[in-house]
Write a structure and sequence with these properties.
The chain has about 180 residues and is α+β, with helices and mostly antiparallel strands. It has one domain: NADH Oxidase, CATH 3.40.109. The protein has a four-stranded antiparallel sheet. Helix 2 runs antiparallel to helix 4. It starts with a helix and ends in a 21-residue tail after the last strand.
Length: about 180
């Protein structure tokens, strides 16, 4: 089996991270891999916001927790020290699909580098708010963006879960 297919079959969502910050070079490699995802008409309409600042990471986690309706003290990013937020051009017809492919590439790249990752939702709700639009402005990001997801990244704390058995009756041939 080739390495790419092997990574696709072995990658799992991690729900407990060590506090250790991954190497910046690894984060940069992940982002580069993400930005090479297939995209509609070659527009490259998705961007990545790399959050390594602990205060900002914690603020986003708290806002995400509130949107998700969890109890105070819960961290929807499971302690991951890095959050890679994928946004896509709100006015591009394939924005959600393109951004989703970026998310997939980010997670596969994390796995290939020995890092754990998990896709966390509610980026759409966050980036619809004036507060997060202001954050984008402060970062120099112009335009209208839709939040696709957060890729929480770090070193797994414990064993990575084994894959669930694949369900039957999911392939239909039209020969």
């Amino acid at each position: 089996m080739n390495d790419i297919i092997k990574a696709m079959e072995e990658r799992r969502s991690v729900r407990k991270f060590k506090p250790d910050m991954p190497e910046r070079a690894d984060i940069e490699q992940m982002i580069e891999a993400g930005l090479y995802a297939a995209n509609g008409r070659g527009k490259q309409a998705a961007i990545v916001i790399a959050v390594t600042n602990q205060q900002l990471r914690d603020r986003i986690s708290e806002d995400n927790r509130k949107i998700g309706g969890w109890a105070e003290g819960f961290d929807p990013f499971y302690g991951a020290p890095v959050i890679l937020i994928v946004l896509a051009d709100k006015n591009w017809p394939t924005a959600v699909y393109d951004g989703s492919l970026v998310m997939g590439n980010l997670m596969l790249a994390a796995h290939s580098l020995g890092l754990g990752s998990i896709w966390i939702h509610r980026a759409r709700e966050e980036f619809e708010s004036d507060e997060y639009k202001q954050l984008l402005s402060e970062l120099g990001v112009e335009g209208e963006w839709v939040g696709i997801g957060h890729c929480a990244v770090g070193y797994a704390d414990g064993e990575v879960p084994a894959p669930a058995k694949r369900r039957d009756n999911r392939i239909f041939w039209a020969e």
